[in-house]
Amino acid sequence: xxxxxxxxxxxxxxxxxxxxxYGSEFDLEMALNLGKxxxxxxxxxxxxVARDARTTGLMVADTLSAGLLSTGVSVVRAGIIPTPxxxxxxxxxxxxxxxxxxxxxxxxEYTGVKxxxxxxxxxxxxxxxxxxxxxxxxxxxxxxxxxxxxxLTLETAADEHIQAILAKCDVDLIRSKSxxxxxxxxxxxxxxxxxxxxxxxxxxxxxxxxxxDGHFPGRRSEPEKSSLGDLIQMVKDTGADLGIAHDGxxxxxxxxxxxxxxxxxxxxxxxxxxxxxxxxxxxxLVTTVDSSLVLDESVQKRGGKTIRTPVGDIQVAIKVKETxxxxxxxxxxxxxxxxxxxxxxxFLATCRILEKMARTGRSFGDxxxxxxxxxxxxAKLKCPNxxxxxxxxxxxxxxPEGLENVIQTLTVDGLGVTLKEGWILVRPSxxxxxxxxxxxxxxxxxxxxxxxxxxxxxxxxxxST
Length: 465
Hints:
5-stranded mixed sheet; Alpha-D-Glucose-1,6-Bisphosphate, Chain A, domain 3; 4 domains; 21 strands; disordered N terminus; 465 residues; 15 helices; 22% strand; alpha/beta
């Protein structure tokens, strides 16, 4: 069973929080007013503020903090930590909200802000709408000089997150196998957590790109096959059992097998779902519209059902909570494990992979080999943000007319077209001035043909708009 749900549209906010190019689209006044808007929305209490390793992160966090303090709301600064750690600490320490200064996997010139509720889930569309209304109105609460918020620091957030994860794992079982792992934080926020977590589980840990650096000198921040050449080679050279790669703020994790294969996130979701579905008959798994059909098939084989949402971890988390799903995730490497929290949780997902390896005595490559691979290709084409809406309107007609054997079209999140064999998704990015195309089918040849045809249609439409 496959169900589709739709999101609310936002202006200031993209797919995930506010994410823009610093200097041309985002400045410190925007950061200050976002802080004031959140403080006005909350009215009182305390907010946890953290950041990733970007060069703009400290001054944006300072400015956001100033905006919050000016409304009488107190701030606790957690320094550089992963986004999932910020979300966990917000819930665990019962802050009224959490704010992460990050642009996730985007290039280094981007900066941004993501807001988290005390439930560990990102702000919903309704919460973002309320925040945006205050931001646009400029009707901010102004606290008198003697009732400003206080600013404190929290230096143990990463350690607390690690201890909570270890409490959920069979540490002794994993350690008994003496696995060798290679960790690639990509010079991002995971530098302060993943290598230390892995050292609790095995003495054989190799780290590359493990120094915090907002220029991301080691590789592109987005962990995908084309950017993980060094990790692939290191896994092979060291005879490692598992490779682990993160994006800039570590809300994503991508795994590499002992043979150097980079595994798509939806296949890993399917592998983890096997165990989660054992705990509940007819369990529900939530994923996004761009995940492989192999996920639906794997879940159905185990008596579960799949619900599809628009792209974005918040959309997945909302539906996980609404449906009491066993887990959720995105093909890009997002894993939402409600047994722990409603934010992406790449660290516990990694531990679950190691547990499964230890319990079964099988390698990761052997385990993931049970999950079929359907050819899937992606492309992205530059498109100015101001053109996106009109381009998508034109594509709603042009794409179905330009493709053969069209069975169904959906406009849940962009344009989804179901073909006699396979599917294609065309959607405007919520974080970059591009239009993304994803295509899956039974053979590599058929996927390449459909993708190339779709690219030509999209390029022609962008040029003529």
